[in-house]
Amino acid sequence: MDLSGRMSRRDAITAGASLLTAATLNGTASANAAKTLNIACIGIGGRMDTLYREAIGGLGQNLVAMCDVDPNQMTAAVRNTGSLLKNAVQYSDYRKLLAHEKSIDAVIVATPDHWHAPICAAAIRAGKHVYCEKPLAHTVAEARMLRTLSKRSKVITQTGNQGSASDNMRRCVEVIQRGLVGQIHEVHIWHPTHSWPSGVDRPAGSDTPPPGMNWDFWLGTSPERPFKAENYHPALWRGWYDFGSGSLGDFCCHAFNLPVRALGLNYPHRIEVSGATPGSESFPAACSLRFHFAGKGKRAPVVISFYTGGELPPAEATRDLAATYGSVPGLGCLLIGDKGVISAGLWNSDGLIKLKGDIGFTGVLDHDGAKKVPKTLPRVESQMKEWVDACLGGPAVYSSFEIGGHITEIGLAGIVALRLGKDIDWDGGAMEALDEPDAERLVHPQYRKPWASLIR
Which structural domains are found in the chain, ordered by start? Predict the structure, then answer.
């Protein structure tokens, strides 16, 4: 890390090695004799509500501590969950939680995106298993760092793209890799208009943060700005580039999951954008992107088209869906092959297939042709249970930070193109937009002091 707080390319690639050493010295997290995990939850509210209800209430794991810079979030969570959270020790600083709660085996992270990398890195450094909501990181360089950590450490990591655990998703991977729908040249992903601030710059003026909230800590590594009610916290932060990455960051880890896995896609070599406004502080109200992937071996080149804000794929691509169901769904993911089409849904968990000659779509689990394809992937109950079981010594997870980080990198490369407002030629391995020097600050951002030291 240089003195300005910028994460250099060297930092991003090599940070994992230094953190691995510390994690090894601390020892890998291990479950207690009762075969339950001692868990800490960081970032209360929003998605975390679902996560702890499953991990603690559904799977019977032990919640030791929880943390949020806004104590009102924790108060509301305890009030709304009865006895589920009442015995958890409350912290406002995750660093103190990790330092004081030595019995913790694992950490669940569901903060805004710009805090994912610092907290996940600290937890891995402390030898804790980590489940983190998607997207795994806020920048390409952060995602690369966490991928390196996951690959080299002994802890179990899982990315929260929950469709990965569905039978339909895994069956679609098997069917595609078997060649049932033939060569897939195009993938269409579409997302409806979102409710976050979009296509606008920051509001004027300031408001008083909620009582007890540490707004400076909430901002963390991001540039300083005044608190403004009903614009950032809670829930609306995702629309702002300083904290989230809009619909693309929110859903790339879901909808890109199936095509990236099934087709073995590495990095796009070119990303084309439309509808972007260069210099805007928030994600566009509507835009589209095209990610071009080179062919590899027997696989043909692939283009993934992403639309958000109301635009739909071309009618030719959705014709079979409309014919089967009477209209085109408001969101979805279509993989179009030369022998058939798969409709996977935005979470890749719907799993519908239509081969040439079929009258309409059939569930991929029930289609006669698909039934002939052997199962090669394990089946699990849920993303959370798979992670808990792996932490307790069970089989490996399917969406570790290594794969979740790769998918995140692809989506966040699209954010680079959107923020530049132009098409880019992308070198994914080097994390560079070729001949675009302005992209450097987006891939390797400047971090605000004193928080810059958290990214190492």
Answer: 9-164+384-401 (3.40.50.720)
